[in-house]
């Protein structure tokens, strides 16, 4: 687990880009709650710039996040419910 202020990373999914990586982390809060952080890194440092991904990269990181336990297994079903027309 990696500490981040009052938060601890409890699960993580990463995709590698050229000299950079995209991470989705599940963060445990001191209050007992959880948050999800999507971030962009290079050389071990958080990048303060917009995260720009292709559709395939988005699908890849979400797939990994579900399998790594960052997002619940029913995440895709919940997403499908929200975007059904």
Descriptive overview:
The protein has 85 residues and is of the alpha+beta class. The protein has one domain (3-83). The protein has two helices and five strands. The chain has a five-stranded antiparallel beta sheet with strand order 1-2-3-4-5. Strand 2 and strand 3 (20-29) form a beta hairpin. The longest helix has 13 residues, at 55-67. The N and C termini lie far apart (40 Å). 12% of the residues are buried.
List the helices and strands and how they pair.
Elements: E1 3-4, E2 7-17, E3 20-29, E4 34-42, E5 45-46, H1 55-67, H2 75-83
Antiparallel strand pairs: 1-2, 2-3, 3-4, 4-5
Give a short synopsis of this structure.
About 25% of the residues lie in helices and about 40% in strands.
Brief descriptors of the model:
85 residues, alpha+beta, 5-stranded antiparallel β-sheet, 40% strand, globular
Number of domains: 1
Spatial arrangement of strands, main beta sheet: 1-2-3-4-5
CA gyration radius, whole angstroms: 14 Å
Mean pLDDT: 88
Shape: globular
- Return the string of H and E elements: EEEEEHH
Q: Which consecutive residue ranges, at least 5 long each, have pLDDT under 50?
A: none
* Number of alpha- plus pi-helical segments: 2
Task: Assign a percent range to the helix content.
Answer: 25-40%
First-to-last CA distance: 40 Å
Characterize the main sheet: 5 strands, antiparallel
Helical/strand content category: alpha+beta
Strand portion, in percent? 35-45%
Total count of strands: 5
